[in-house]
Amino acid sequence: MSASTSWSGFRPGFIAVIFGLILLGISGCKSLPELLDSYSEAAHELWGFNGVVAVVKGDRTLLLKGYGKADTAFADPITPETKFFIGSITKQFTAALILKLYEQGRLDLSDPITKYLPDYPADPGDRITIHHLLLHTSGIPNYTENPEIVLRRTSVITPAEIIASFEHKPLEFEPGSQFKYSNSGYVLLGAIIEKVSGQSYEAFLHKEILRPLEMHNTGYGRRVMGHPSRARGYTVDESGRLIGAAPIRFSILHSAGALYSTAEDLIKWDRALGEGTILSKKSLRLMLTPHSANYGYGWWLEKRYDRIHSFHGGFLDGFNSTIDRWLEDTLLVLVLSNDDEAPVKKIARGLAAITLGKQPVIPALKEPISLTPDELKDYVGIYRTEGGLERFVVLEDDTLHTYLRGEPRYHIYSESLDHFFFAKDNTETMVFHRDHDHEVNSMVYSDGESKWAFKRVDSGSALLLMLNEPPLKLPVKALEEFMGDYLLDMDQTGATNPVALSIDLCGGLLCASIDGNAPVTLWAKTASSFFHHASEFEIEFVRDDSGAVSGCVLTLSGSEVRGVLAPKTGR
Questions:
Q1: What does the alpha-carbon distance between residue 66 and residue 51 come to, in Å, rounded to a whole number?
Q2: At how many degrees (to 10) do helices 90-103 and 183-197 cross?
Q3: What is the pLDDT of residues 223-241, one digit of tens each?
Q4: Model-level pTM?
Q5: Per 3-state DSSP, what percentage of the chain is helix, strand, and coil (rounded to 5)?
Q6: Do 410 and 402 contact (CB within 8 A), yes or no?
Q7: SS3 of 203, please?
Q8: What is the pLDDT, as a whole number, of residue 219?
Q9: How does residue 426 score in pLDDT terms, banded at 50, 70 and 90?
Q10: C-alpha distances in angstroms, 209 versus 98, 215, 263, 265, 471?
């Protein structure tokens, strides 16, 4: 069931589930496995969660069960054997391979990366160590924020091309001085693994970890494409409706996020870490020692419920996962989902809380109410935290949507005046506050556990205005001159093949397609500039001295990519 589940279709029987969760501490009427299953079922029904859940304490598996469909088109159920892409959970495997090489005496964590990658620029490579890469303290820009790389998401891209996209860019800070999560560092770690081991990243992973642990259903992304037990990835659109996720080539993630696995295999991985069968106690201590921002080697660490807790999420288009290890309780909680907006972290923390005798965030039924368009207009604006984080609230088709800059928009429902909840997760809320003149002046956002205060600000935003002002209506004849194929400038990525942007007409409007992907509709902002209504994507067409269209400039999340019009070939 998707996050767009009709509220009127709610099954009353689940009210008993919720009351059972609340009353368990009083009545003791449910066993722990039954309670964990009830909680997961409630998350499936009320949060639209689709995926698999595993809760293992010591040698006892308390819950290992799938909820929902692996592929909605074929109604294939999710099972503990279903394969999910695990995104950045890959990083702990990459870190473990580095530590294996360290144990074998083949590298030192304090070595500069140029010792193993001599072609990497000495400035700054001589100052960046393997230790810095593991901890995200290298200062190297995160390549997945590079729009040129994002545009190549459906094309095969080699690790060398990924590295070429950032190796000559200036550092964002001096190595070791700050923390900033960067996939670039973990791609470099993959390159070091290949250089030192003399094997591909995939082959060394199988030799050192997957084969010894009999993790037969874990591997590098390309190997599982088309496998019948692979989950298909989905995302949630702005109204909360489940749709197929955009395609991606897993080579673009490499050693930073290209692995797939199953709940059963990740249980084997957890046991191997706990028993010391893969890494020595010394290496495991290095892996789980928190440094800047409480990050270790491929793991976040925190203290929660007065217990040490290591965890890591894995997000990519169509998939969202988390692995949580409560070290003092030998408790593992896994939540793997083929919906990239599933509240997996919240579900995992809820399951851990139940197991540890704490109060979880309870899935709950909320009935939306209707507000008039004039009432909804009160909330439209830009809201900013003291730290400068901006959240936008926009009105479209008489419904409110909210988003952070550069991230997807989400439909929010009103449960009462000034109180809203997200369509994708009804425990995620926004509560608006008013001044003495009854004008909205602030907002508090909550993810169900933590809260952030935002002040409404007056400074304008071109994107916000663009989304709230009606687009221009241009005649088809005026649009036709923009049609054609544009070759985008990919020099910064080291790409050997150009990326093509195709502009065509779709139902009397312009539409754009990157490298043959599904086209998206463009709306006119001016006579020569267009935008996509649901993301920070703009395109400005450029003319030559004769007035003919000769190229374009794409703006994605504030970065520009230029393109030239390719010669027409009978199009």
A1: 6
A2: 40
A3: 445 556 889 999 877 566 7
A4: 0.79
A5: 30, 30, 40
A6: yes
A7: helix
A8: 94
A9: confident
A10: 12, 8, 16, 11, 55
- Kindly state the tokens that stand for 114: 């140029």
The pLDDT of residue 509 is above 90: no
Per cent of the chain over pLDDT 90 is 62
How is 397-438 classified by DSSP, letter by letter?
Answer: TTEEEEEETTS--EEEEEEETTEEEESS-TT-EEEEEE-TTS
List, as one string, the DSSP characters of 140-180.
---GGG-HHHHHTTTS---HHHHHHTTTTSPPSS-TTS---
Neighbours of 30 (CB within 10 A): 16
Amino acid in position 359:
Q
List C-alpha distances in Å: 120 to 101, 137, 348.
21, 18, 40
395 has pLDDT over 90: no
- Whether the Cβ atoms of residue 193 and residue 200 lie closer than 8 Å to each other: no
Task: Catalogue all structural domains in the chain, each as residue range(s) with its CATH number.
Answer: 89-220+243-342 (3.40.710.10), 373-460 (2.40.128.50), 476-565 (2.40.128.50)
Cα(349)–Cα(288) distance, rounded to whole angstroms? 19
13: confidence class by pLDDT, cuts 50, 70, 90:
very low
Reported confidence tier of residue 221, pLDDT bands at 50, 70, 90? confident
82: amino acid identity, one letter: T
Task: State the Cα–Cα distance between residues 324 and 350, nearest whole angstrom.
Answer: 11
Q: CB–CB of 421/366 below 8 Å?
A: yes
- The C-alpha angle with vertex 228 and arms to 223 and 230, in degrees rounded to 5, equals 60
101 burial (CB, 10 Å; 0-12 / 13-18 / 19+) is buried
pLDDT at 491: 61
